[in-house]
Automatic annotation (TrEMBL), chains A, B:
One of its GO terms (molecular function) is iron ion binding. This is Xanthine dehydrogenase family protein molybdopterin-binding subunit. Gene3D superfamilies: Aldehyde oxidase/xanthine dehydrogenase, a/b hammerhead, Aldehyde oxidase/xanthine dehydrogenase, molybdopterin binding domain. It comes from the Bacteria. Residues 154-165 have a biased composition (Basic and acidic residues).
Amino acid sequence: MIGTARRRRDGEAKVRGATRFVGDMPAHGLLHARPVLAAEAHARIIGIDTEAARAQPGVVAVLTHADLPLAGGSGRAAEPLAREEIVWAGQPVALVIAESEAAAEDGAALVDVDTEWLEPVLDLDAALADGAPPARISARAGDDDSAADAHGGGGDEARGGDGDHGGAAASPNIAVRQRLQAGDVEAGLAAADHVVRGRFRTSWVHQAYLEPQSTLAWVEPDGTLVVHSSTQGAFMTRQGLANTFGLAMEKVRVQAAPLGGAFGGKLMIAEPLAAAAALVLRRPVRIVFSRTEEFSAGNPAPGQLLELELGATADGALTAIRGRVVGDRGGLGDMGVEALSALLSAGPYRWPAHDLTALGVTTNRVSPGAYRAPGAPPAAFAVETLLDELADELDLDPIELRLKNVLVAGDKGLDGQEIKVFGARECLERVREHPLYAQRHTLPADEGVGLALGFWPGGLEPAGAICKLDSDGRLTVVTAAADMSGIENAFIAIAAEAFGLPEEQVRVVTGDTGSAPYGGVAGGSKVTYTYGRAVERAAEEAKQRLLDVAASELEIAPEDLEVADGEVRPLGAPGRAVAIADLAAKVYTFAGRHRPIEGYGSTAQVSRAPGAAAHLSHVKVDRETGEVRLLAHVIAQDVGRALNPALVEGQMHGGTAQGIGWALLEELAHTDEGQLQGGTFAEYALPSTDQVPPIETLLVEVPAPDGPFGAKGVGEPPVCGVPAAIANGIAAATDIRLGVLPMTPARVWAELQSATVV
Amino acid sequence: MIGTARRRRDGEAKVRGATRFVGDMPAHGLLHARPVLAAEAHARIIGIDTEAARAQPGVVAVLTHADLPLAGGSGRAAEPLAREEIVWAGQPVALVIAESEAAAEDGAALVDVDTEWLEPVLDLDAALADGAPPARISARAGDDDSAADAHGGGGDEARGGDGDHGGAAASPNIAVRQRLQAGDVEAGLAAADHVVRGRFRTSWVHQAYLEPQSTLAWVEPDGTLVVHSSTQGAFMTRQGLANTFGLAMEKVRVQAAPLGGAFGGKLMIAEPLAAAAALVLRRPVRIVFSRTEEFSAGNPAPGQLLELELGATADGALTAIRGRVVGDRGGLGDMGVEALSALLSAGPYRWPAHDLTALGVTTNRVSPGAYRAPGAPPAAFAVETLLDELADELDLDPIELRLKNVLVAGDKGLDGQEIKVFGARECLERVREHPLYAQRHTLPADEGVGLALGFWPGGLEPAGAICKLDSDGRLTVVTAAADMSGIENAFIAIAAEAFGLPEEQVRVVTGDTGSAPYGGVAGGSKVTYTYGRAVERAAEEAKQRLLDVAASELEIAPEDLEVADGEVRPLGAPGRAVAIADLAAKVYTFAGRHRPIEGYGSTAQVSRAPGAAAHLSHVKVDRETGEVRLLAHVIAQDVGRALNPALVEGQMHGGTAQGIGWALLEELAHTDEGQLQGGTFAEYALPSTDQVPPIETLLVEVPAPDGPFGAKGVGEPPVCGVPAAIANGIAAATDIRLGVLPMTPARVWAELQSATVV
């Protein structure tokens, strides 16, 4: 079964509308919550007048920060509603809870927030400037309260800079500073025959999942907080809610509901709001963000500034990389992607020396979250653009330059860990053979083919799984992993193969945190690699129980039996085969002599399975309008082993399309005062079908030694290199290089104009 | 911890009303179902007029048999509403479903069932008589439809009698006949110096749980039937519903809710009704039986007739036993207790020869179910009464007679299985030492002390369990076992002891059939013995994972570590101990290097752990009124190992009290037409506190080699011998022997009169 394209098991129910998302869940006595969002980007709260809202028919309560049963924690989860200070336009300031969604909305419109304006900090450059105004003046939850400027976070260590890369040590807005360095970068750059430098800016980009943040919460009579949520991490959410509200872990039960898209963005955004209201009101409360609330108060990918310089010898050997990656942490973010982005800005290459600094900066923007390969598309945009320039300067084939330096098995990554296996080389070789690569020099005017390599190290987290055979001979896989991006199909394939049943006889159940084995966040391209391995082991253990039953019933040693096609067969005597269902029926009975045909498996992967994807993007630039059209796109991705090529290709298509959004279209823009411009899908420029060219997917299979059947995560790698490939395509077509994403017609046109003028 | 009396963990929530029973569960859009019960005991259905009911405001539907989506199966579950024939007064004939309970009740009163009277068969003697009218004329579900009299069931084999014990081969009402025989009984009885004979009759007795049968069912959009029910067997209910409605097992999900009492009676009575309505109407439907419906349409313990003769040599060696046990199967019962009762009527004694026949008989009574030690109290009533008579005739001490013949380890039971360990001897010896036993000959007139030995072989069924440590260092046990009779406390004790945590740090979760490991019915005194062992193994496996983590963190081999008091300690270096919570915190993180601290365990016990309890009952008979008063009661029970003596004693108290109900009070009486007399707790004579004497509990601990920490089931054994002990007490006080239960004042008085007259 492994390696054959099959239809998605979860597809039909989703197409028919039979999947029950959180917003569809019936609940008796349900209340509906609507947040009141701050209008200003930065302000002190003088007072919140809730009287008119509370008088609104159907409104049950209007909660503000002081009403919430908060116990601690830090960051946004610990401050679900603004405390004394508003730190972004769109920050939830109050929560109106009503018997109907309409009443909640009407109530929210009547809440009057009285504020005193404070100067907003909206731009990373402005935030970093010496003497910049602080983006937050009050202490954040979880910070030491003694200093009003404690929002700076990292303290002495963070402030004590290395002096490199533009100082900024005097800014009150630097929350975190991290530095990753090894070797002698000065010497490396000095020894280089060519050094290239660049400054890159990428925008805030929303994950744009179809289903908004949705949580349903209630409190059982025994005090247990029960949360059904559109979350990527049931156990992580349990931990977060337990921290936020000071509850014992066993007094919080989280069920991950089917997800209508997430892409990294669904972790502890809506849950604290619904849970707080349920804890206060002791009734079920649901919050489903509106699309505008999503854009204003979600947790999109943050804007970044990247400055890199790198050198190489004349024969193309990279010598050193130096740089600084600045990530926007918004007003409340306790999580940033800048450190990971700094690591990834070195690409999957061997560097004799590196020196990379990451700065997390507080601004008056929304708090950032993870989005498919967090920090990777900006990093690849920077480093792959510079490598392209370097190849030009060195007059080397861009693939040859990369092949000369790309990491291979046995090398150590920037994190010092040895790489067991890595298919980046194979991906590059694969696109080199593609006709489009050969045609790149014979294209019409204003067309070009850009190349880039995307890289994702792959996440790790412990996971457990159960496999259990029912008395009718069908197998159930139980994990805590949310139903998202076809995970179910991977588990089914793995369990079916490991146990020996047809896929139709296997199903997956997502258990809640009370009853399911532990499992990490469904993200970071780690589900197949970690959970999947646990599923494989659980299925193997269950198979062993099945063989025990068969051995006892057939009086044949287990090692002389095999499982195939729904039967247990004595080796060499297929005529004596017994159907699995017949064996199962002997187990689950009064006075049954056999243990249940069940198995548990778990894993804690210690070696990563890094992913890579090489892209060729065929672009055409309209010099009149600056519009970039994509004529074709080729992606060669190392997928380890494609359990179901149809789903893997789906991930490659989706990642590439989202990369096109990063490259050409998407940007959460704001006014000079920091208010979001456009908060609907009509205004936010996602790639539409006419903007996505035919995508040719080339599956490169370099088996991951620790993955189930050699498989590994495939979700993140395809997005990483897309903006860089398109940028390099634009350069090939026009000789202009844009350092800014998205590369909108206006920006391209302006760059074309200045290039022409010069 | 094991062996110390502790408070029940589940007690507080139940006392505070915080336990959510099925009747308390909120459900959006819930419909309420009310059954229409047959008035006649036996009738043909001409028509059911539902028009007036359907016109009732709030009534959504009125369902009759033809409306139900039935697919097969047999017995009562396959015929939730009467098909063409009513076979007992109280049989559900229609189901009214309404928006409110009141509307459902009003609707039910308006359903008009038109019937043609058929002669009812209400009495076992009448049912067995040659030429008896048939209690059912139409074929039952699951029977071959070809013969109208196929209700007889067992077919040729069942009909082909052995001629012994009163024939009855010509009755159309014998559903099942089973015979258990070995050795030469004729020769054994001929060789006996004394032979005693008796005929015994016991009544229908209701389990009288406080919470009535309750089921909430709905259908998920993907077609899954979800059932939350007050059931003793989630997996058994799933299997039953899948069979009844022709659903794949994975399309039925059953959650066992906390039980407000069950005692064997809560299995597939309410579930088919609620599930059928939910499947038809596609809305959530709940049914909660009224108390009258409970008495009329539950599944109480059936009436029985027992005829036994047994012989012994002059020195008290038993030679042979012969007998017939007739059990009432009512009009729809596909499950009877007569075969088990026949087996148990030999008591836990060595018999050189036995010949015991069981007859299951169809009548126009409700279908029977299991009730705490099904068939055992009547069996012990018969055999222990006759042994008492035998001791009198042989002039032997009744305990000596029993000790001479009682089974001990190494003996084989009537089922041919060797007994590994058995504490009946120790129980008898224990009561022999009790002062009450010595005082029995020096009591005032009309007082007496009766002795009896009760015996329960113990059930077996495979079971699985999971133990998982949370990141805060607390342990969760997951099984499918319903929360009933303190099960939770046993699991907590076992897991705490096996893992090495204080009990307060352990909790139990009852998972549903979708996510929890398999487990059998919570009944037959097998939960602690089977599930408990699985819990022990799961905890041991989880502990192994904990030691792996500690070994890696402390760099000490796992075998040099011990777990105690919430810490992992290096042997000989307690100063280096690490708190379990601190180790747990290292596991459940991004890039965690340790597998989850979780374990799975399962069991399929193959050797039973039979239970025994010896009773002394001190009775006083009022010759004026026939009233029997209990002055004291002593029970010595082999409990294997008392995990929590407080709970074990609670079981001994409860079992004894229910045995007093059997002995003196309880009877589901009916009119000559078969209508139930009295259907409320005001009329049904449960023992009240003034009728239950102080009960002295003597715990005899003969460890069960395969039980967790030597423990075994303790629920059933205490009830078995109570009616016999009281009957023997009455004989000691008055010299009269009643062969009928309950021994009401009227019956005792009448017997005293006839004894006096003679």
